[in-house]
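Internal ticket #5521
Category: modeling
Description: The requester needs a full-assembly model to guide mutagenesis choices. All entity lines are attached below as received. Residue total reported by intake: 770.
Assigned to: D.W.
Attached entities:
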Amino acid sequence: MSDGETMGGLLEAGAAGATLTSAAPLRLDSGAVIPSLEVAFCTYGRLNADRSNAVLVCHPLTLDQHASARHPKTGKDGWWARVVGPGRPLDTDRYFVICSNVLAGCSGTTGPSSIDPTSGEVYGMSFPVVTVADMVRAQAVLLDALGIDQLFAVVGGSMGGMQALQWASDYPERLFSAVVIGAAPRHSAQNIAFHEVGRQAIMADPDWRAGDYAKAGVRPEKGLAVARMAAHITYLSEAALQRKFGRELQRDGLSWGFDADFQVESYLRHQGQVFVDRFDANSYLYITRALDYFDLAAAHEGNLAQAFRRARDVRFCVFSFSSDWLYPTAESRQIVRALNAAGARASFVEIETDKGHDAFFLEEPALHAALEGFMTSAAVARGLT
Amino acid sequence: MSDGETMGGLLEAGAAGATLTSAAPLRLDSGAVIPSLEVAFCTYGRLNADRSNAVLVCHPLTLDQHASARHPKTGKDGWWARVVGPGRPLDTDRYFVICSNVLAGCSGTTGPSSIDPTSGEVYGMSFPVVTVADMVRAQAVLLDALGIDQLFAVVGGSMGGMQALQWASDYPERLFSAVVIGAAPRHSAQNIAFHEVGRQAIMADPDWRAGDYAKAGVRPEKGLAVARMAAHITYLSEAALQRKFGRELQRDGLSWGFDADFQVESYLRHQGQVFVDRFDANSYLYITRALDYFDLAAAHEGNLAQAFRRARDVRFCVFSFSSDWLYPTAESRQIVRALNAAGARASFVEIETDKGHDAFFLEEPALHAALEGFMTSAAVARGLT
């Protein structure tokens, strides 16, 4: 726990953000130790007097702590501005919303592009492999520094949902409620396979330089763009791709060449290009690795319910999307069954949509309405006015 | 049509194979002309006296003319040895089976790695973009040289199925029957997207050298391997990947690094590595492009039935696989509906399997039994004994 002065400063991080520096070593699942930790985060709203209205938003793979308001780099709205803000489902007039960049990220939290205090050089591939549980440990360090003993809610989609599940497993006493959107209790073989394609694309880029590209002043942009393109397909449903692009051409007629003839090609190339401007290749390697290692039941002899055995007092809401083939509804149902078996109260909503996995941060009124309903009901139960 | 001597020689190509050299220019859909054409092919069985028992097998994207018997390079069985051979569904004791390497391929038929007779140099990216219809044109040139006016059957899976559909559209009078397995009447936005990832991976490899790698004595192996890995995932179902690999590890425990920890990673890397030994990167670009351009209805104002209007006397059998997400059953149903609307007789069989798209050349007894049944029934109708 930080002293009062630091805490007060951190509580005023706001949408512009702040960085917690913790001099305490962070011991990781691998056994490795990070000698000191920085956690970059933003906050929205105000912490109430009894510190009971804090909501931790956990971000997905390639996003960051800028969940709402303008992103200082891109100038665009935060990635979850539809959900986090005044009058939104995570209503910043009622809740104090915190979002921190994950461990191994590239937006201010300690990661492979940070300076290793031991060597004075960029970590690169000497950064230790981290897990989703390690990400959650770093978030717990932040909450300690903010003086928040219990979260009113932990909320996340995709990898953020896995962090929320990990919170329920590792720190149930620090949760009043948890919202898990479009997630899974473990990475499937197909999930791992797609990530491995992305990693191989990055590592095949000669500018990756065995992870030491920063020292060489280059970046494996082509490999990272290919990784992004492959992953991006998995975020959308086949139906959404067909509806948005079909076989529509960029120009009148085919080019009879290898330029982007089809709008879907141009769209994918664009996704790859803009991604390399905002994301670090090594962070992509480490975070995908953390996801592939994610298997919440593994530490409990394969019994997922055991992972939640101490979480029976937490109120859960689990969402899935009918057209999500990255983390299909069946995997959300596994989570819900395990929560039920553990005796926790769990609501489950499958949202009918053709938007695929990315539905969790797109315009999806049914999700937003159901999320708001759950939050309001939980707020009443918690005595938040 | 070749003279009798050439024809006789070609008819004895056999499993070892032969190459037709046609001095006649081949005019392509793009308007470009290939000044002279080579078509590499193998045959299995014997052509009967009235030349009525010929079966053309059309190969999928990355395969070749070695459908049966031992492959001269790999030493393994031909890719469809389960289907083509004595007593097999395409029974070489009854039928004369021909399989030719596609135009733009890399196994002996004219393609981007061939010598451009005009310049005396390897075509590379100066090779014209070809279509599935152009592939079929090259096959028709081969049949002319073999003196085969009408095929008893054209049979193909995946891209081979698209060639079979194109045959039915362009040369219905040369078909008695057609078998279309795990195909689609057009490439969807998602199909195009996956191919574009593969092309971008190849073109991102500095050893690609704008397609001129042959002159430089290098090969874009890393890019091609990544392309293969991405595509390979689409050939398998999520369920099959889970059944075969799940989250099984290569060794006891995690490596806490970026080696292949999971068996599925090791499998994918292996798929990428063996592929670069047997396939050419530019051929991959050209053949994926041909597939992405494939849209049988486009030349008929979007009316697929019109594409089959001259094929009402052809007997069709269409197969799909319940777990194929590359070319799902719904797309086979579109084909069948269009065939019905055109007045053609079409059987349709959806094979229940978890093997995904690749089921068409795996051990799939239900497919083999149904295919044999269709062939035998068609043989009776054709008067083949």
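Resolution: model delivered.
Comment from assignee: The first strand of chain A starts at residue 18 and ends at 22.
Ticket closed.
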